[in-house]
Amino acid sequence: MSDIDIEATTEAARKAKQIPDPSGYKILCMIPKIEATFGDSDLIKPDSIIDNEQISTVVLFVAKLGAQAYADKDRYPNGPWCKVGDFILTRAYSGTRLKIHGTEWRIINDDTVEAVVEDPRGINRA
Description:
- The protein is α+β, with helices and mostly antiparallel strands.
- The protein has one domain: Roll (10 Kd Chaperonin, Protein Cpn10, Chain O), CATH 2.30.33.
- The protein has 2 helices and 6 strands.
- It has a 6-stranded antiparallel β-sheet with strand order 4-5-1-2-3-6, with no helix packed on it.
- A hairpin with a 2-residue loop joins strand 4 and strand 5.
- The longest helix has 15 residues, at 3-17.
């Protein structure tokens, strides 16, 4: 392995350690990448529109579950509403927003999940 590969691996490991572990019943979600163009056209979206779409998105990717997420068997008798790796739908502007190395993340409550979707492409806030 070259020095460059070792440095890149070390840097990636350092960044991975900066991803927070959600506490209690919280869920850590990543904002999927917002398309840079409008639909099937080559028309490029302004940064302000991309930023607005990130802020108001209803589609999230589940990265981590808190230790108590979905643990209440009375409240969740059928088990968890989602799992790590799922794309979920939630209300626009839900959760605590944070950026880690330029990527937008959200921390939401476990009861904020409204649906799980297999393929979120094409889903936008109305």
